[in-house]
Amino acid sequence: MTKTNNTYYLYQFFGNLVFWTAIPIITNIAGAQTKPLSYDVLKFIKESMLTIVISHFVIRGYIKKNTHHFNNKFIRYTLLVIFAAAFHSLCDVIIRYIFDQPLPDNNELVLNYGWFGLYMMALIVTSFIYGLWLVFYLGISSNRDKKILLQQLTEQRLTSLMNQINPHFLFNSLNTIRGMIYENQDKAAELITQLSGLFRYNLASDTKGFTSLAKELEVCQQYLAIEHIRLGERLRVELNTSQTSLAMKIPTMGLLTLVENAVKHGIANLTTGGIVTIKSQVVSDYLQIEVTNPYQQELVNSGTKLGLANLKQRIELMFKPAETLTQTSDNNMFKITINIPCEIVENG
Question: Does 236 reside within a domain?
Answer without folding.
Answer: yes
